Amino acid sequence: MALSEGTITPRLYLSAQTRWRPAEIVFWLATLLPYFFFPNYLSLASQIAIAALFALSLDLILGYAGIVSLGHAAFFGIGAYAAGLLSKYGWGEPLSGLVVAAFAAGVVGYATSFVICRFRHLALIMLTLGFGLLLAELANTLGWLTGGVDGLQGIHTWKLLGYFSFDLYGRVAYSYALAVLFLLFLFARRLIHSPFGLSLRGIRENFVRMPAIGAPSQAHMRTIYTIAASIAGVAGALLAQTTETVSLDSLGFERSAEVVVMLVLGGTGRLYGGLVGAIVYMIARDQFSGVVPQYWYFWIGILLVGVVIFLPNGIVGGLAQIAARWSRK
Amino acid sequence: MSAPALATRGLSKSFGSLAVARDVDIELPKGVRYALIGPNGAGKTTLINLITGMLQPDAGRIFLDDADITALAPEQRVRRGLVRTYQINSLFPHLTALESVTLAVCERTRAARTWWRQLDAYPHEIDEAYEILTALNLGTACHRLTRELAYGQQRLLEIALALATRPKVLLLDEPAAGVPRDESKELFAAIAGLSSDITVLFIEHDMELVFRFATRIIVMVGGLVLVQGPPHEIANDPQVRAVYLGKAPARVLEPRHG
What we know:
The complex is a heterodimer.
Chain A: H1 10-17, H2 22-30, H3 33-37, H4 42-64, H5 73-88, H6 94-116, H7 121-141, H8 143-146, H9 171-192, H10 195-205, H11 217-243, H12 253-266, H13 273-291, H14 296-310, H15 314-328
Chain B: E1 6-15, E2 18-28, E3 33-37, H1 44-52, E4 59-64, E5 67-68, H2 74-79, E6 82-84, H3 97-109, H4 123-135, H5 151-164, E7 169-173, H6 181-192, E8 199-203, H7 207-213, E9 216-221, E10 224-229, H8 231-236, H9 238-245, H10 250-253
Parallel strand pairs in B: 3-8, 3-9, 6-7, 7-8
Antiparallel strand pairs in B: 1-2, 1-4, 4-5, 9-10
């Protein structure tokens, strides 16, 4: 943002950072387009909204606190199984399912955060990877509970708010996923603009310096890790409820890697990066796998390499740069 | 006599066979301006690392206002008012100067624990950060990213971050390192102008600055406190002249490493 120095008071400057920008309003209005222009793609749209929520939760730890995780799907999976099991055993009310899923993923997130917050860099990546693999194998072994490789069957999601039943076209599913995404986005947006959010950026920028300004970095990291785990759990629950099935790959390594790719494509640490990344990734996957079903990863690879080389701050970062150059002219 | 602001008793630390701190006893009365001098490798920065808890001592105790803080974590020591700066800038490159100092203020007031209210709900923290920056002549640069600041401004930001924690004891590790001479005088004038409630210990190589701004001087050589006293005594001490001020005989006593 181009601001002439000294002409704006610090209070105004910092509150200006939190103001809604026109591009943000356009973005959220655009999320309504599928209803009018792509009514046959509403199921895909709801998948995208779920992926976006998952990527948003990863951005909170990776983009803001610098915690690189290769096992984030663990929380997605816990949320999915929690909501799925709840429904299978007789309680299919969707909203309370989300709460249970958030709680389950949050508890596991909080427990593991005590280990996570002591490490950085490669050790952290390996730890999260290890936790993820462990949990995936556990879910596989506990076939009686999770359904193993066959997936969790017998989920029935009740009507949303007791009124809207989930239809075949995915109209309700998309509305539901989009509404939850938007509400949790508002929550995340508020969080990153809070004093706590500033501390997270401090941890990302200079972890070593934080204790020297009296910051309890480890406590901060535990808090954000728990919050991000809960949000990932909600994303998983949405998938379980809208597809009425949970498979082992919901907490597999591939899903963990996929969400990192989405976030990097969109741009880390910018709130919208995960959302835009999820849109691009999911649409690319849908289109490419339609053309050459076996090789769609090839194209995703090209996309990833291209973005990393030419747009080091991701698609959103690149767009922001172009917009900044435009406004300076 | 009131308790010293900061004291160490028998502080020792070795890296393998290299003793970097040997039985260090220092005592800083409240409000003094102490200079810590000594040749390269004398263990000055190590002493700061030990006092602030960035390093664990092998033996010895550290007291802040008579309270034993040896077992406290670094951030807990900061909370109690024992704060340091770094010889090599250790800042937040992609935060603005204002954001950096606001961050430090919010950590002190514990506003940093709240994630359900936005920063604009904390105008006092923001104002305080801005006042600190203004006092250090950084007011006009406060919206610039740290990495875009001039080097001298970054050195000042180091001090601003420390001040935001409201220190009782401030340990400055070569605050003017790498700053041109005329700017370093300004920097030290700012340090001299700090509230007399703050006890300051600074490491500095420029003897002119040391003798101008220090009320007492500690001389370290090879991890050992050689002598401490007021500037005129230090200037006339034959031992100090030998190891530090007079360059020629210093070789004898200088530690072999670094």
